Amino acid sequence: MRTQVAIIGAGPAGLLLSHLLAQGGVESVVLETRSEEYVAARIRAGILEHSSVELLEAAGLGARIRAEGDEHRGIYLQWPGERHHLDFVDLTGRSVWVYGQTEVQKDLIAARRADDQEIHYEVSDVALHSLEDRPYVTFTDVSGNPRRLDAAVIAGCDGSFGPSRAAVPAARVHERIYPYSWFGILADVAPSTDELIYAWHPNGFALHSMRSESVSRLYLQVPNGTDPQSWSDDRIWDELSTRLGHGQNGWKLNPGPITDKSVLPMRSYVQTPMRHGNLYLAGDAAHIVPPTGAKGLNLAIADVALLGRALIAKFRDADQRYADAYSDDAQRRVWRCTHFSWWMTTMLHTSGDEFDAELQLSQLRWVAGSRAGATGLAENYAGLPIGY
């Protein structure tokens, strides 16, 4: 097989890149180790930045977001006895959208079928070769047949465990492991809030998010290594009620049937450069952020926007400039989002140290009480323009 761009990974980054390339007249083939059903059902991010929605709309993928997504003007910041609303639209003129990654994936799968781009699910033994000369990918297809895919460019959109990241020699790795995790639940109950609540509490951080009008997504800070099955449903709701302030100023947390429990370790990870020869990395293959700032999916979308532009210019216009600048251009936003995610995380998650707690509360009061502080958070959370 031969194509212009071999894309490793059929998550949002890989499928969005394939779609953007098709719109620009560039051929691609996508390889994915998981099944289509598995990839489509993965529960991941739920918040889209203003910039991400603008890009998806420009790519013809905004209809369902506008029809079925939930536009939010801002978030609530909370600590015991106080809850403050930060209105992003008033502060920056930009909103965010609650629209789960599973829904983005549905839109991208539908677009891929319309584009008639080739994709191979459930492949194995994926290996990248000759990246500085004539790149190609070898793999075993779903029927057990060995295959070879020749391409001018390989795009590594295969996450933190795929082969693309490891194919960059002498890469520099920057990593921060956090001493806590998120215990996340899905519950079949209408959200108890109109917008997300980010709550600092001496017991640990809590977040009230949502997936739809009838499904709530909630999180608790827990120690690393926590077994989600060690928490009963009653214990989960009791702790969420405590940390989120049930009864505070008449507010109530409504419990409901829990349909999913999972624990997510927290880390910041950046690998540089994001290009080696004819291999370009995008999304989780190059960087991981803690979920506190809602940046993971949005950062992947921003990477792909830059990479799509670069590869279309390369193949359609014989213009190599954007491709040569891709790694440096992408990393400006990567490090901005990495800092913001670290800042939100360290401001809201408790360490058990009283000195740290007082610093966190001081910072929260400043953000909530200062227009400059609130605008800084809003500008980063709602998303800087693509290409920042």
Give a verbal description of the structure.
There is one protein chain. The protein is of the alpha+beta class and about 400 residues long. Helices cover about 40% and strands about 30% of the residues. The chain has 12 helices and 19 strands. It has helices spanning about 10-25, 35-40, 50-60, 65-70, 90, 100-115, 165, 235-245, 295-315, 320-350, 355-370, 370-380; strands at about 1-10, 30, 45-50, 70, 75-80, 80-85, 95-100, 120, 125-130, 135-140, 145-155, 170-185, 195-200, 205-210, 215-220, 260-270, 275, 280, 285-290. Strands 1, 2, 8, 9, 10, 11, 17 and 18 form an 8-stranded mixed sheet that branches. An 8-stranded mixed sheet has the order 6-5-13-14-15-12-16-19. Strands 3-7-4 form a 3-stranded antiparallel sheet. A hairpin with a 5-residue loop joins strand 14 and strand 15 (about 215-220). The longest helix has 28 residues, at about 320-350. The protein is globular, with a radius of gyration of 21 Å. The mean pLDDT is about 95.
Key descriptive features of the protein:
12 helices; 8-stranded mixed β-sheet; 388 residues; alpha+beta; 19 strands; globular
Write the layout of secondary structure elements.
Layout: E1 2-8, H1 12-23, E2 28-31, H2 36-41, E3 47-48, H3 50-58, H4 63-68, E4 70-72, E5 74-79, E6 82-87, H5 88-92, E7 96-98, H6 101-115, E8 118-120, E9 124-129, E10 136-140, E11 146-156, H7 163-166, E12 172-187, E13 197-199, E14 206-210, E15 216-222, H8 233-244, E16 258-272, E17 275-276, E18 279-281, E19 287-288, H9 296-317, H10 321-348, H11 354-369, H12 371-382
Parallel strand pairs: 1-2, 1-11, 2-8, 5-13, 11-18
Antiparallel strand pairs: 3-7, 4-7, 5-6, 9-10, 10-11, 12-15, 12-16, 13-14, 14-15, 16-19, 17-18
Helix pairs in contact: 1-6, 1-9, 9-10, 11-12
